[in-house]
Write a structure and sequence with these properties.
This protein has a two-stranded antiparallel sheet. The protein has one domain. Strand 1 and strand 2 form a beta hairpin. The protein is mainly α and about 400 residues long. It is built from 13 helices and two strands; from the N terminus they run ααααααααααααββα. One of its GO terms (molecular function) is odorant binding. It is a multi-pass membrane protein. This is Odorant receptor. It is found in: Cell membrane. InterPro entries: 7tm6_olfct_rcpt.
Length: about 400
Amino acid sequence: MSLNRRRIESAENRYKINQILLSSLNLWPFQQSKYTKIIRTFHFGIMTSFIFFQLTSFVTYEVTLDVIIMVLSYAIPSFIYVIQYYSFSFKPYTVKRIWKDIHNSWDLMKNGAERKIMRQYSIAGEQITILLSLSIITSCVFYAIFEAMPIILDMIFPLNETRPREIHALTEYFIDERTYFCPILCHWLIGLMLGAYVVAVTCTLHLVYMEHICGLLKVANYRIEHSLDECALCDSTHGKNRAIQNITAAVDIHRKAVKRCVFVLDNFNPYFFVILIIGVSSLSLNLFRLLKTILALDKMVQLVSSILFVTMHFVIMYLANYYGQKITDHHNELFNTTYNVQWYTAPIKIQKLLLFVMQSTTKSYFLNIGKLVIISIEGFAQLISLSISYFTVIYSLL
């Protein structure tokens, strides 16, 4: 088996979980069948009907601020499910390009040390995929158990009368909700869990790709740091050429990493911007719902769902901004690494090349959404501050 083949198989094993997750939603771009459109239409149907039967509450309920907040605190996050699924369904080329970039990057590694660096970052990506997916799935199962608790208790500890059954969210299916409670509950839970699963699958691929880009930037730093190792005696022509090749290779992989950041933003920026607006609005509404539930202390399911919703908002917002900050830090590290190399002892030609690298990396690189929000820890703080501001506005209206 060739070395390149072994590297490709290694990359496939590192990201096998992401492939399985994408395939489970029929979003894997390399295996499109004649049933793909049917399955995706079915998924869209579940998620859109999930939103529709929440918004129909405005038809039968008296529209008050409490009702609006109650409905929108569930409905607004649901739009994220549809947007995320849409962005992957109708941009298969982008997903395919991401996957090919990940695989091709392993062929750029020159030695075992560089492959070890990439392996560490791929393991980190695998770990965040498992943790985030399990967290979201566990939260959904936990919520489903609470929603179905009356049915479960009636089966285990039956009473003379059936326990009260209701979905702890405002919905309107235009049928008798007591008679058809089980089908309604099934539709509600399937819609919620499918949407949450979509978020887990799509978000983890983005996070894995950002982790992968960080690995490339780390390899670029490694190449700069060791660019002069093999040519301590740079007086020889061979030594100079080796140093120049090492530095050029570092610049090349650094450029590829930045281009991949630009590629993701160019293709997903409109979706990210809409999701950002929805996320801030949703967090504000769910913070208010959480506060109201805590003050009332009458519905445990409402309390559990509010805590889960708010927690997931915080976790996903933090992870997105954390990885944005991580890319910025890795990019900026190249300047420090180049500065710390003993460039002043190298021949003039190599000094000029290293000074060019320092000049190119003097300005910090930031990922931004809609040219308004910088993806960073500071950006995370700004989003939370903005959400709390809207929350206080809503609170002041009541």
